[in-house]
């Protein structure tokens, strides 16, 4: 049986475009403003290459006026409070629903995606995002008491889900009291401009939302604008890295949702008919132009041929064509540039000797179409298995054991999503934690909801959109406003240092303290040591001068330690309490060491030790309590938001508070199951080098904490650029922060730096808190079928 066409009318959308003379200006400060350069560019309909409308190209001057409008609107938007903001967001949601069909048709025309998808998925989810975040606006003052808005947010979105990405960006930003300047992608600006009209219609205060169209250079001007306090970006990993580097050291917040090469894993007991439909949704949804597309099919060998055969039958039935035909499964590729990229990668895949299969029918020729394509028997190192194709191309390979499935799944620099197919819930839940990805779908794929966080591990970026976890991207802790430009140092004791080193319990001043790697004391590779002076400039001893090789050994030791990350929170808590107990036993010795280095009074040194013990208790308490959530998503799922450790983290400690600064940073990181490489205070390293004895006697597995002493700048540079370090915290100078953020961008390691601002580590409000745990974890959302 052959389906006839079921065309959706484009007449209303065309009338809408005609009413605007098929030409749109920039939406700035609640009004339409012509671009200052006078240039307009065309957005076409990729299914027939026909121009739809001209849109303005914003240059740096236009970006400036949009940012100025947002800045001016900010105080008023904050002042009206969460409830009023909730009313506006609710009004936006209602308006989107009332104009849902116009949005859906316009989106299908501008992007080329099937109306079936814009009507049933994109636009309903857009409305859902505004409703959900209307709720968060309402709840901000009670649920997020410690937080305030970030300020003016620059948002840059891609073309694959134009209005949906707009809603993911704008809804949480507005809810939390920020104002925004958003730049849609150049191929697909039209629904964003229709959204601007809706903002006008509901009487949204001027300047709260500004929409400026233009190419990458417009985006770059927005990124670099000094009055923008945060950038939220979705797009390619390459541009994500450019952005991370552009704003390094500025203190601007950033969230990056980047590319992927997500695995779709099928175990032999899976329901293969469901799997086939899952694959259709994973890789042929939106023509495969989906950051989290299940583009790598990993199949258990015993069923591989059977599944490929079924898939080919299904692929033969897929319909490619006019997106406005409701019977169409696959629409047009967004632009000829993208078709070319897909085509080149497919040709490369064929040249590299992988088996390729396409349906027998031809694609329409009047637009930019590409047939669904299946590669089988692909080698894991093939370029088509590693590079994001961003098209309807599925790459399949088989596995023999569960271990191999996990290894193949993680054999990528990305980590956005994964889909698991098995009828065995035990197997699914055993595999889910082993996958390095921000989202794991069990027996489903490409499901999204405003209540669940979405975002990447590794080079798929960082930050989450949706859920409570997404709100942290658009808020700032109020306490940060009280951090100081100068470090808080203990008062030098008037009575002077109590005697000499040996009277302070340090009998072996001539000994150069060693470093600590893999649970053993380690001599520095270079054989150098550094002289250390006290706060008055008197020589007090020497530490090992670590170098690149020492860092490499420490990172290797951290990676080799699988026992610590594998322990339960309860077990880790026991070890942390033991550390605290052992430190308490040696409190005088540690206090004396502090006196020796900082010349503070013994009383204040003892206070630093006491606070350190208390802080260890705090994170020990949290080790089994910083748990996840079960998000209330709208599908038939329960969605577990699990905070997982980041992996191997580098921690560059503050120079001040030699003991407490070390404890306050290292302990939360290990409490969450990370292994760490620590650079202690450069000026006062002995509290850290003494600490190995505590670690040795407290059942801490070797490789959990590795301590490398020496030049902070040099060592943190090595750590920031190290490919096997997954995250880095840096407490130091402004310049150091910039360098760390620049270098960390290359493998997209998560970085958390102090931008040269100082905490008073003795002050509980500054020195501890859930923010340390949040920065030591990343959230994985696991979607499990639930209910009927
Ligand atoms: P892109 O990353 O260049 O574009 C995304 C957005 O960033 C657009 O609005 C663009 O104007 C803007 N942009 C470009 N350069 C910029 C810069 N230097 N500073 C600030 N903003 C800038 O992606 P493009 O070129 O459209 O697609 C290329 C490839 O990227 C695709 O083939 C696909 O592999 C990947 N991609 C991934 C997406 C995802 O959701 N993960 C979305 C779009 C593309
Ligand atoms: Mg277009």
What does it look like?
With 788 residues, this protein is of the alpha/beta class. The protein contains 27 helices and 33 strands. The strands form 8 sheets. A 10-stranded mixed β-sheet has the order 14-15-16-13-12-17-18-33-27-26, with helices on both faces. A 6-stranded mixed β-sheet has the order 9-8-7-10-11-19, sandwiched between helices. It has a 5-stranded parallel β-sheet with strand order 30-29-28-31-32, sandwiched between helices. Strand 10, helix 9 and strand 11 (253-257) form a beta-alpha-beta unit. Helix 3 packs antiparallel against helix 5 and helix 21 (602-623) packs parallel to helix 22. The two termini are 32 Å apart. 1,4-dihydronicotinamide adenine dinucleotide binds at residues 156-160, 183, 185-186, 215-216, 219-220, 223, 234-236, 239, 242-243, 258-259, 291, 338, 341, 388, 390.
